[in-house]
Amino acid sequence: MASALYPKFKEALLSGGINMASDTIKCILIDAADYTYSVSHQYLSDVASAARVGTAQTLTNKSITNGVFDADDVTFTSVTGDPTEALIIWKDTDVESTSPLIAYIEGSIILNGGDITVQWDSGASKIFAL
């Protein structure tokens, strides 16, 4: 599976249900052995707890320029467990069944109990571009 924006995110974005600049946007590391991306997934509750690795991180200093979304790099502290092959970004509403999924981003990380810093792409697409 390649990186992708969730289709229901695109719908929510275009209808005004998500504001990437002002909403609380979070990310979590994902063990792909316990989660398979699906275009039908809409909310964080669609992602099994067993697939989530580490503690969710809030994206800070978010920016939107010319259809490109970016934020500060995030650090997951003292991460242990299964290797991760992706991360998921979502809008946090404090309720998993109403927290819309935004993006599934591939990238393999071997965990060693230390901190994991996710450095977003410094190229033209940053975290993602529309």
Please provide a written account of the structure.
This protein has 130 residues and is mainly beta. It contains 1 helix and 10 strands. The strands form 3 sheets. Strands 1-8-7-2-3 form a 5-stranded antiparallel sheet. Strands 4-5-10 form a 3-stranded antiparallel sheet, with no helix packed on it. A two-stranded antiparallel sheet has the order 6-9. The radius of gyration is 14 Å and the shape is globular. It has one helix at residues 7-14; strands at 4-5, 25-30, 52-58, 63-65, 68-70, 74-76, 84-91, 101-109, 116-118, 128-129. The two termini are 19 Å apart. The mean pLDDT is 95.
Quick description:
This protein is mainly β and 130 residues long. It is built from 1 helix and 10 strands.
